[in-house]
Amino acid sequence: MGALLDAAVAHYGADLTVSDPFSGGGTVTFEAAKRGLKTYAQDLYPWPARGLAAALGSCETADLRAAADRVLAALAPHRAAYRTHAGAELSHVLRVRVSKCLHCTRDVHEYPHRLVSLTSRSLQDTGAFFGCRSCGQLTRLNRNIKSFSCDGCQTLWNVDADASGCPHCLHEDSLQPQSWRAVLVQELVVLKGQLRAILRLVSEGDPVVFDNSMTLHEALAIEIPPGKETKRLLDNGFARWGDLYSRRQTQVLVDGLRTVAALDCPSAIKDRLAFSLLGAAEMPAFLSRWDRFSLKPFEGMANHRYTQTTFVVECNLLSPVGRGTIPRRLEAATQALRWFIDSRQRPPKVETTVSGRRGRKKTDWDVLVTTGSSVKQALQTGSVSVVVTDPPYFDDVQYGELARLFHVWLRIYDPSVTVDESAEAVPNSTRGVSTADYEATIAACLAESRRTLKANGRLILTFHNKKVAAWRALAGAIATAGLRVIALAAVLAENQGDHCKRSVNAMLHDLVIECMPATTSRPPKLSLEFTPKSCAEKNLAAMGLALADCVAACDAINIGAKYRTHLERLGIRKRHIE
User: What's the Cα-to-Cα distance from 429 to each of 198, 250, 426, rounded to whole Å?
Assistant: First the structure.
């Protein structure tokens, strides 16, 4: 994104306005604001829009740190809930789901893998914990073994065998979830002068019993609504938002947000603190996954999905070490503020508004963050030099349903928050949103962005998808919006080593699509601004060329056939897009 903006500055000069009508977390906005460019950002939902505005707000790092220290001091007593009888503190509690077999009525410990976790990250430590689905016992052995006998019940297990069904009667798909059993904990110890988290088996006196958290705030007692993505939660037995958390996690988050709201300090500081705490809500005790090789938890919505797992990890949200804890988030917020201040000569003037609001449009701002559908944007006609954005990735990400969790917590901080999912540009069978609806909404948003463009302006999209239907809809939207594709490029956008991308057939590249108004006289000839070498790059190039053809013809019906034709010309038979 930064490279695209640098190219825009080289072409138009530094006195330009950048717009991102699908801003999300604000990558484009941050890169533009860091360069001192006048920037407009808009998102349908208050969670990302308000979070972006908070992260761009102006305050002093010393004041933010002092306020963060006050919040941590107020929450410090909650750390006692993770104290062992010996006085040590736990940073994580790892649990396996215990289900009852409906055929033989015996308990099954649903370890998703025989190798549950390595014992440490050290290359010198060759140990690992192996789980028994019959009795639940963990056995510590060499990580490289191929089979093992359970220390508890002596059952013999093949490490690489499929871990599913009932181990007692061998019936498949007959398990009914009953409870969660704590089997491992990470304990904080000082080693060589540094605080470390050591993984060990649960022992007597460990605080691993959990209580229901819904009674701590009425918002957490709200039923999880049905949906394409929330169905994953409902199918796993979670009925209300409070079901996802332990009571002690909820106490920390609720008390923390109330403490922040009561602080006597500027809203720029309070909002930064609040969104740091709200981010910790993505580590629910019964939704967070455990990376058994890296020994760290992953957010309950990593890879844009509500997790479905039978081995979960509860984070002590106040632990001084550990991924995603509140002290580390607050420290990161301070560092981010310092980085942003150092990247600019002066703090940006940040304004916020709501789309569709009548009256004179604001012009006296460095960054304008708008909440609401980008079908209506708070920008003057012909005021933008470059639009840089990535529209919703078809039905790959259910943005509204995933944001529901955050909006529950955001209302605890600010009860006035309202959310409207009806304008979301994402196919969703539960809400009755079709592919045609997606195309129409994207087209309306892009047409509004074209209205804001100067005569010589450019609109740049980044997109990837493995469905031909998604590309067909995007081509139709671009054409309907009155735009023409003039250049294509591909960039490696995803890390194949990420926990959620590892060993799966994930699309790791984005196609960069440069457009200009179709009314422009003598439009430039389509340019392929990269030399596709790998199979993935050639697949994206072929689809990009097909998309450009369809946009020029204002006919996206045959994009699949055109894609296959271009793919053959590039000498590739393997199709990544179907």
Answer: 45, 32, 10
d(CA 27, CA 111): 38
Predicted TM-score of the model (pTM): 0.91
CA distances to 158, 162, 179, 234 from 165, rounded to whole Å, are 15, 9, 17, 20
Q: Which residues contact 357 (CB under 8 A, 6 or more apart)?
A: 378
Among 55-69, 86-100, 333-347, 477-491, whose mean pLDDT is lowest?
A: 333-347
The residues that bridge with 43 in the sheet, in sequence order, are 371
Q: In degrees rounded to 5, what are phi and psi of residue 553?
A: -90, -5
493-524 exposure pattern, b = at least 16 Cβ within 10 A, e = fewer: eeeeeeeeeeeeeebebbbbbbbbbbeeeeee
493 near 508, Cβ under 8 Å? yes
| Residue 67 CB contacts under 8 Å (≥ 6 apart), including other chains | 263, 265, 269, 270, 273
Residues 91 and 290 sit within 8 Å (Cβ to Cβ): no
For residue 507, pLDDT over 80 is answered with no
Cα–Cα nearest to 91, from 297, 286, 400: 297
| CA-CA-CA-CA torsion sign (447, 452, 457, 463) | negative
3-state helix, strand, coil in the chain (%, to 5): 35, 25, 45
Maximum distance among all Cα pairs of the chain, rounded to whole angstroms: 79
- Tell me which residue has tokens 């009525």: 105
Which residues neighbour 16 within 8 Å (Cβ) at sequence distance 6 or greater? 8, 9, 37, 38, 385, 386
Angle between helices 2-12 and 27-34 (to 10 degrees): 50
Element (H, E) at 403: helix 399-413
Tokens of 392: 């919703």
The string of pLDDT tens digits covering residues 141-169 is 999 999 999 999 999 999 998 888 899 99
